[in-house]
Amino acid sequence: MHEYVKKEWYVYGKKAPFNDLSEKLGIDPVTVRILRNRDIITEEEMRLYLNGTLNELYDASALWDIVPAARMIVDAVRKGERIRVVGDYDVDGVCSAFILCDGLRTIGAAVDYVIPDRVKDGYGINMSIVEKAHSDGISLILTCDNGIAAIDELQAAKEYGMKVIVTDHHDIRLDDLGNELLPPADHIVSAKLKSSEYPEKEICGAVTAWKLLKVIFENAGVPVSEWKKYLEFASLATIGDVMRLTGENRIIAKEGLLAMSCGPVNMGLRELINVTGLSGKAISCFHVGFVIGPCINAGGRLETAEMALRLFMSDNEKEAHELACALKELNDSRKYMTQKGAEEAFNEVIRSYQDDRVLMVYLPGLHESMAGIVAGRLKEKFGKPSFVITDSSTETVDRDGTVHRILKGSGRSIENYNMFEELRAVEGLLFKYGGHPMAAGLSLYEENLSSLRKALNENCHLTDENLTQKIWIDAPMPMSYVTFNLVEEFARLEPFGNGNEKPLFAEKGVRTVNMKVLGKNRNVLKMDLISHEGRVFHGIMFGEADALKSELEERHSISIIYYPQINEYNGQKTLQMQIEDIR
């Protein structure tokens, strides 16, 4: 088994009166330790974490400008003015647009929508969308999951005489004095505004839109039960856009997953769950992140994101089923393209760039919408900042008549490498770029590719320690401590994800026997684990199973990091340890 990422194990050492809190809360001391490790400290915070409901969500009116924005929208609806929602092509943008479009139609609005094309338009509202809105007689443009940086575009909309309301969650650009650079909208609804008193700054675009819809419904006299119907879309976007699953976000994600598991209210989402084989199952963050969300995103990557929006807007079962099937088929194609591209990228790195600290791979045949996903795969495999560059159909001509072919790419970063700032340092080699510390998009002249790779690596200050992956263990805990009740108690801590990571435990002196390789891709290794005290437990590990098996056969004993699960097969339940890492 070849390891490309150096890993170090660390054990949390945070202190708390574990036994006292255990008694007061009626939970195991290990569960209290997990909560403390997530910086949930007081008894009150722990109770809210364990028992929080939608009643604990923050008051929407704390979002700056939300009340006058809602009034402007309701007034426009009552006057019969035309409203156009401008969304984005990812899961958050689609869910945001659906919440606003469908919600506004509930109060009788003359509302339609547009989603920019990923390849042709790029991210966010652009001049052609503004001009089309003007020619179509639109009175009010309402952005969601974009717009906070569209200063020139929204200035043009205002000059055309349109009203503009921005709802967004992206970072706000600042000038040299630290002042916010904001578009000339009539109203801006964002938790990121300095003037916003909203307690949670990291809500996604769909939750921002959902909060606005709540105030709109209150103004229009619509019962709160109608607003709660959109919870599942706020949850989908929160998980799909990888928001931190703490506080309000965790409640939204948790309650939304429960609603989806019981059967979504929305026909289109119900059909998507059916065609992906999830009907009747308890929908988890995994299903959203790796099944449902990618199907929604596949439309925007390979055809148009409006497919997913039409699916959710549909009230025709036949149409909804056909759209759900089409999105699943697109995602199947996307998975094949991603796997093929990732394998090419891995081979290229191993062949030519394994010693580079910043990886840059050119894959001319890869669809440009796949670059970010493949870059993410590279980052995961090698533990380094990674860029994937692809061909595009774009060319530009210099003043002297020289034709330059434009390449496009995406990058995914690691914690210690601010990708946006590193690109800024070499911007002379770039045609365009943008992004944030953990991800970026760029375009460049073809002839600058090797120079860019060289410059990024020469400027790179990453140390061996920076490139070492840290795995945090919640507690050294023998497998013999695990019971069915404890595993069921851990389920109360779900959903796991960004900011609320799955708990991990460790035990040393473990032997492995009865190993079997399973799965059509031979990526599952089942085994029996014998603890140092001689007890036998079932174990499972995912990865390159044949290589794992060969390595384990050569070892007398190992240390493991694991998470306990309940495995159900043929009606029989057994405890099973999912192994996350070994040494």
Total number of helical segments? Answer: 20
Name the helicity range: 40-55%
The fraction of residues in strands falls at 15-25%
Low-pLDDT residue intervals, each spanning 5 or more residues: none
Structural category = alpha/beta
Basic shape: globular
How widely separated are the two ends? 12 Å
- Most strands sheet: 5 strands, parallel
Mean pLDDT: 93
**Quick one: how many beta strands?**
18
Rg for CA atoms: 25 Å
Strand order of the largest sheet: 3-2-4-5-6
Describe this structure in words.
- By secondary structure, the protein is an alpha/beta fold.
- 40% of the residues lie in helices and 21% in strands.
- The protein has helices at residues 18-25, 29-37, 43-51, 66-78, 91-106, 127-135, 151-159, 205-220, 224-228, 231-240, 247-261, 267-275, 285-302, 306-313, 317-353, 371-382, 419-424, 449-459, 484-490, 545-553, and strands at residues 7-11, 82-86, 110-114, 140-144, 163-167, 187-189, 359-362, 386-397, 403-412, 432-436, 439-445, 469-473, 475-476, 505-518, 524-530, 536-542, 558-569, 572-582.
- It has a 5-stranded parallel beta sheet with strand order 3-2-4-5-6, with helices on both faces.
- The longest helix has 37 residues, at 317-353.
- It is globular and about 80 Å long.
- 42% of the residues are buried.
